[in-house]
Amino acid sequence: MNYTSFWSHWAWPMATAVLGTLFTVLVFIQYIRRKQLHQLAWSIGLLFYAVAAYMEAYSEYTGTWIPGVYRVYIVLAASLVGFLGLGSLYLVCRKKLWGHLFFVYTLVMLGVFFYGTFTYPLVEENLVAGITVGGAGLGDSGTFPRICSLFLNIPGTLFLFGGAVYSIVIFAVKKTFKYRMWANVYIAAGTIVIAFAGSMARAGSSAGLYPAEMVGAALLLAGFLKAGTLAGKEGPGGQGEG
Predict the structure, then answer these.
(1) 128 belongs to a structural domain
(2) Nearest to 202 by CA among 144, 150, 124, 152
(3) Is residue 98 situated within a structural domain?
(4) CB within 8 A of 231, min separation 6: which ones?
(5) Which residue from 134, 194, 211, 232 has the least number of CB within 10 angstroms?
């Protein structure tokens, strides 16, 4: 087994999928206990992450993409960050209205993206095994479904990373909520790792992508769980979240 085949082995995304499943259950248990909307949104995003990783593992194991599976994979992989960003928006905003509005926006864009992905003809020769195919199976970067994905990816990433940075600044000066600062450090670091690995893959360098996904997911989970340990309903400003 050479260097490239080792780092793109199906066991890596399978490990990420198993961890992602565990993460989803843990965060959803927090939601059941606390009924906080950010935990529900994060649970959905992590579930998408886990299912997409299972599909990556299947693709690597079989050496191919089933067209229908690939279409579902693209929808989940591109939209999961929208729900993770939604969770961060619910967490940092005192008024839930902003989260509700972005939730409606996310659902609308998800529906449009789903329609575009399942109606646009696939480029069969681009359906090679693994995540390295990215969105190439849907044609070049200017096709309708690939443009739609940006309307989920970009705002989701901005809210996820921006919310983490904002919270780091806010909680850094509050000793009582120091753990919330570290929670958001983990979230920001996980976002950077996943975004960087994904960018490298789209540029054609996929070595280490699967391990990076696993590390990034672990960092996100650490942040989500740590942020969810807050007693009561304190928001980033020490006031109510709602």
Answers:
(1) no
(2) 150
(3) yes
(4) none
(5) 232
